[in-house]
C-alpha cells in the first residue's frame, strides 16, 4: 500500500474523526488521484507560514493540521525557553503537556471559512500544554495581531488567514515575540518541532471551560482596539492639514469583505476625516467574497463597485484592503478624470516621497533613517531615498525580512527604520507593528491625498511629477499557477533549467548580470567575475539586462505559483511601457524562458 493510501486509511478509520471530514473522505474512496493529492505530503511552512485548501487530509487545512502545527509551536516555545531547540535532544517530547504557564501566545483570525474554529483549536491545544492563549473574540487584522504580540509582551502570535487567496483556502502564520513573522532560522526550528508530531489525529486539546477556568484562555477586550487606533493615528505627519481639508477631501473605502472596516473607520474618524464613504456591498465579512472574483487589491477588478461609488460622489481617492488587512491598494483620478488603480510600486513611491518631503520640511529626518524594500520592488524608491541622502536596504521577498531588519536596527542602534514596502501592496510606516499594515497605509495615503489636493494637485499628478524628476520606472508581475505534485515538480524543473542553462539575451539585449540567491552568488557576465550576495539563501534568480531592465524568478512561498517580476526604466511613460511589454513577451512562456 502506498504512503498516501496508508494515511488515507488511517484518517478514514480514526474513531473520532469529525463527521464532515469523514464524509469528505468517503466521497473520494474511488478517486486515487484525489487521495494522493490530499495525503502525499504534509502542509509545510513557506515565506508566509502554512497555507492550503480547506478539507480532509494531511495536505489540507483542518482542525488536525492546526493542532499538529500548534503542538509543534508549544514545544518550540518550551525548548526556546529552556535554551534547547534540538528536538533530537528533547527526551520528554510527547503530547502529554509540559505546563509552562509563563509562556503566552496571541491568536487572531480573519473572515475565512472555519477561521474562528481554527483559532479556538489552536488556543485549546496551547492550553493543554499549559500555555496561555490571548484570543481575539472577533475578526482582527494581521497587523493588529503583530501589535498585540508586542503590546502584551507575548512569546508568539498565531494569525489564522490566507490573506488574499481564493475562498477555498485558509492559513496559519506564526509570529515571534518581536511581532514579526518568524525568520528563516526560527521557522526551520519550528518546522523541525512540528515534524516530530507523528499523529496529528491524536493531539490532545483542553476543553474551552477548563482553559477558561485555569486562565489559559483569555479573550481580549476592546482596549487593544483603542490602543491600536491611538497608535496608528499618532503616525499622522500633518494632523492640522487633515482638519483643514476634512470637508473637501472625499474618500471611498472597501474592506473587500474582510477585517478592516471597524479599525479603518475608527482611525479615519480619529484623524479628522469627515467625507468617508464605505462600499456597503463589501462591508460585511464574507468568506466567499461574493462580490469579487478575487479579494485582492492587486486585482483591478476588485475595485469595480468602489469606482462606481466614487464616480457618483466624485471621490478624490479610493482605498481597499485585502481580507486580513495587511495589503492596501489605491485608485486615483488621472488628468482625464478616469479612475486608475495604482500599482504597489507606484503607491510605495508616493508614500515614501510624501514621508520624506514632510519630515524634511519639519526637520525630523535623520541621516541614519533607512528605507527597506524587497529585491523585487521598484528601484524608484532607492532613487528617491538617495535624493534625500538616505540609504535603501534590500531584503528577500516576504515582509518578515523587513521585520527582521527593524529588529537588527533596534539592537545595534546605528539605523532608524523610516519606511518599508514591497511591490505586492504592503507598506509599513511605524515600527510598533512588524508586518505590513494596511490600516497605517490607509491613513497616510488619505493624508497624502489631502495634502496634494491642498496644493491643487491630484495624486496622479504627483506621481507624474515623481516620474519626471527621477525617471519613468514601470514594473509588472507574471504569475504561473502550477497546482499539486505535478505543479511542484514543474516549478522545480523550471528553476533547475534556468540555473543550468540561463538566458544570455532578452529582447535582443545581452543579460549582463545573473544573481542566484540560492548559491548566494552574483555573476557579472560583462566583467567575467563573481561576487557573493549578502542576503540569506533563497530559491530566487534575477537577470539584469544591459539597459538595467531586470527579471526576477521565484516560486511563491504561500501559493502553488511560479512568479516572474519585471522592472524597466524609460525616458518617458511611452518608452517605459514599450520596454515593459517587450520583456513581458520575452518571458511570457516561462518554460521557454
TrEMBL record:
Pfam families: PGM_PMM_I, PGM_PMM_II, PGM_PMM_III, PGM_PMM_IV
Matches recorded under CDD domains: PGM2
Keyword Isomerase recorded: yes
Names of the cofactor(s): Mg(2+)
One annotated GO molecular function: phosphoglucomutase activity
This enzyme's EC code(s): 5.4.2.2
Pathway noted in the entry: Glycolipid metabolism; diglucosyl-diacylglycerol biosynthesis; Lipid metabolism
Domain of life: Bacteria
UniProt cross-references to InterPro entries, sorted A to Z: A-D-PHexomutase_a/b/a-I, A-D-PHexomutase_a/b/a-I/II/III, A-D-PHexomutase_a/b/a-II, A-D-PHexomutase_a/b/a-III, A-D-PHexomutase_C, A-D-PHexomutase_C_sf, A-D-PHexomutase_CS, Alpha-D-phosphohexomutase_SF
Occurrences of domain Alpha-D-phosphohexomutase C-terminal (ranges): 541-572
Keywords from the named record: Carbohydrate metabolism, Glucose metabolism, Isomerase, Magnesium, Metal-binding, Phosphoprotein
Entry-linked Gene3D superfamilies: Alpha-D-Glucose-1,6-Bisphosphate, subunit A, domain 3 (3.40.120.10), Alpha-D-phosphohexomutase, C-terminal domain (3.30.310.50)
Catalytic activity: alpha-D-glucose 1-phosphate = alpha-D-glucose 6-phosphate
Residue span(s) of domain Alpha-D-phosphohexomutase alpha/beta/alpha: 97-198, 245-336, 344-468
Protein family: Belongs to the phosphohexose mutase family.
Entry protein name: Phosphoglucomutase
Organism: Caldalkalibacillus uzonensis
Amino acid at each position: 500500500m502506498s504512503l498516501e493510501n496508508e494515511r488515507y486509511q488511517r484518517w478514514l478509520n480514526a474513531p473520532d474523526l469529525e463527521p464532515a471530514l469523514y464524509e469528505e473522505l468517503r466521497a473520494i474512496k474511488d478517486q486515487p488521484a484525489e487521495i494522493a493529492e490530499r495525503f502525499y505530503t504534509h502542509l509545510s511552512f513557506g515565506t508566509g507560514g502554512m497555507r492550503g485548501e480547506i478539507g480532509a487530509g494531511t495536505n489540507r487545512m483542518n482542525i488536525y493540521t492546526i493542532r499538529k502545527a500548534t503542538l509543534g509551536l508549544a514545544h518550540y516555545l518550551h525548548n526556546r525557553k529552556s535554551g534547547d531547540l534540538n528536538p533530537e535532544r528533547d527526551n520528554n517530547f510527547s503530547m502529554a503537556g509540559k505546563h509552562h504557564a509563563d509562556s503566552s501566545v496571541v491568536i487572531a483570525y480573519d473572515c475565512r471559512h472555519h477561521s474562528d474554529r481554527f483559532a479556538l483549536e489552536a488556543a485549546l491545544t496551547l492550553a493543554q500544554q499549559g500555555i496561555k492563549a490571548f484570543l481575539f473574540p472577533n475578526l482582527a487584522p494581521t497587523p493588529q495581531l503583530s501589535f498585540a504580540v508586542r503590546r502584551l509582551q507575548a512569546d508568539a502570535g498565531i494569525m489564522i488567514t490566507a490573506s488574499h487567496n481564493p475562498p477555498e483556502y485558509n492559513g496559519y502564520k506564526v509570529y515571534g515575540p518581536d511581532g514579526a513573522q518568524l525568520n528563516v532560522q526560527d521557522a526551520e526550528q519550528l518546522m523541525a518541532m512540528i515534524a516530530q508530531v507523528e499523529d496529528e489525529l491524536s493531539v490532545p486539546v483542553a476543553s474551552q471551560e477548563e482553559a477558561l477556568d485555569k486562565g489559559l484562555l483569555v479573550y481580549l477586550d476592546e482596549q487593544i482596539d483603542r490602543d491600536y487606533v491611538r497608535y496608528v493615528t499618532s503616525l499622522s505627519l500633518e494632523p492640522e492639514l487633515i482638519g483643514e481639508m476634512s470637508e473637501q477631501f472625499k474618500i471611498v473605502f472597501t474592506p473587500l469583505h474582510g477585517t478592516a472596516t471597524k479599525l479603518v473607520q475608527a482611525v479615519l474618524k480619529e484623524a479628522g476625516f469627515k467625507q468617508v464613504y464605505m462600499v456597503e456591498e463589501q462591508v460585511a465579512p464574507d468568506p466567499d467574497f461574493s462580490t469579487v472574483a478575487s479579494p485582492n487589491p492587486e486585482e483591478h477588478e476588485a475595485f469595480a463597485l468602489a469606482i462606481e461609488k466614487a464616480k457618483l460622489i466624485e471621490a478624490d481617492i479610493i482605498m481597499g484592503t485585502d481580507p486580513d488587512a495587511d495589503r492596501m491598494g489605491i485608485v486615483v483620478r488621472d488628468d482625464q478624470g478616469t479612475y486608475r488603480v495604482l500599482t504597489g510600486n507606484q503607491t510605495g513611491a508616493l508614500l515614501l516621497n510624501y514621508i520624506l518631503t514632510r519630515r524634511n520640511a519639519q526637520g525630523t529626518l535623520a541621516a541614519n533613517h533607512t528605507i527597506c524594500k524587497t529585491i523585487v520592488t521598484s528601484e524608484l524608491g532607492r532613487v528617491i531615498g538617495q535624493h534625500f541622502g538616505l540609504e535603501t536596504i534590500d531584503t528577500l521577498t516576504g515582509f518578515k525580512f523587513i521585520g527582521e531588519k527593524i529588529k537588527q536596527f533596534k539592537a545595534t542602534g546605528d539605523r532608524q527604520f523610516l519606511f518599508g514596502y514591497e511591490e505586492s501592496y504592503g507598506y509599513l510606516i511605524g515600527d510598533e507593528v512588524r508586518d505590513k499594515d494596511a490600516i497605517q497605509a490607509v491613513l497616510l495615503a488619505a493624508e497624502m491625498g489631502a495634502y496634494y489636493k491642498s496644493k491643487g494637485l491630484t495624486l496622479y499628478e504627483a506621481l507624474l511629477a515623481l516620474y519626471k524628476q527621477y525617471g519613468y520606472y514601470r514594473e509588472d508581475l507574471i504569475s504561473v499557477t502550477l497546482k499539486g505534485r505535478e505543479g511542484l515538480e514543474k516549478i522545480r524543473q523550471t528553476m533547475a533549467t534556468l540555473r543550468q542553462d540561463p538566458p544570455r539575451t532578452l529582447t535582443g539585449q545581452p543579460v549582463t548580470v545573473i544573481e542566484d540567491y540560492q548559491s548566494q552568488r552574483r555573476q557579472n557576465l560583462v566583467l567575467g567575475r563573481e561576487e557573493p550576495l549578502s542576503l540569506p539563501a533563497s530559491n530566487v534568480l534575477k537577470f539584469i539586462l544591459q539597459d538595467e531592465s531586470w527579471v526576477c524568478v521565484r516560486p511563491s512561498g504561500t501559493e502553488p505559483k511560479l512568479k516572474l517580476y519585471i522592472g524597466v526604466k524609460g525616458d518617458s511613460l511611452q518608452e517605459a511601457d514599450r520596454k515593459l511589454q517587450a520583456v513581458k513577451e520575452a518571458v511570457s512562456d516561462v518554460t521557454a524562458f
